[in-house]
Amino acid sequence: MYNFLQRLSGVTSFAMSTLMALVVVIALTTPFIPSSPTFDMSLHNVQTTTGRAMDPYDRMSRKAEYARLTFDLDADLSTMFNWNTKLLFAYVTVDYTTPGFETNRAVIWDRIIKNKRQAKLKLRKHHNKYALRNYPLTFEDVEGANLTLHINPVPYLGIMYDKPVVSIPFTIPRPVKPAAGSA
Amino acid sequence: MDFLKPVFEGGRIDFAGQRLAANLSSAMVVGSATAALLAGLATEKLSLCFYTYICGVVLTFAVVLLPWPPYNRSPVVWLSRKAPASADNLSKSQKTLVEDVSDDSDSE
């Protein structure tokens, strides 16, 4: 500390270490900030049909059973925005169990919420954004399914985690075969 | 490169001043970190927290880095050349060696 450069070096390295400690303190205290979001989700309708993967009129592409569902969602997530929240990632999944595999999950809707104004969700009779199809191309062995809303807060400093909030059990029906067979 | 010599070798302060500068720099950096945390929590803005911290660190630089007069209040008092402790027993060549290597010529 006898020299200008010595003092510059010492104070700068201490300031960097203190900055790291400040960042760690912010990251560790973020999960304890209280938040009180409200959720309300309901399922309207589930329909299943057989369709083709790429082009409905291309008979060479494979056929699979696709389920389409409509849901309502009312949510107020604005209290989940604290000083360390960069964005909220909300997504709706369908989870079910099949005899061969314990966990099957398909994300059918998601949205990135960037500020408090966008955090008030009001969805009425929303279709699923992504296709709901089982890996063996049929819903034959699917016993029961759950429609679950998850929220992922993505912080500026710290660890992101998943928070499943609302879950609705339902069943996925099998597609109704038309009388005159042209599938 | 002689114009860099004041940068690399300048800014000397005495020992009491070094202790004061070291304690003051630690206290001011930690203080600006806590002030930054409180300012950010109060205004709910992460950017304000880090701007406050950077301003605090720049203020610490201004206070600690330059050789202000309070850091030079008690300079080291060297003994005069004519009163050595036990130089009577040293040979002439060793006495010359001891007297010539002191560098207090550029600390005045």
Automatic annotation (TrEMBL), chain A:
This is Signal peptidase complex subunit. It comes from Coemansia aciculifera.
Automatic annotation (TrEMBL), chain B:
This is Uncharacterized protein. It comes from Coemansia aciculifera. It comes from the Eukaryota.
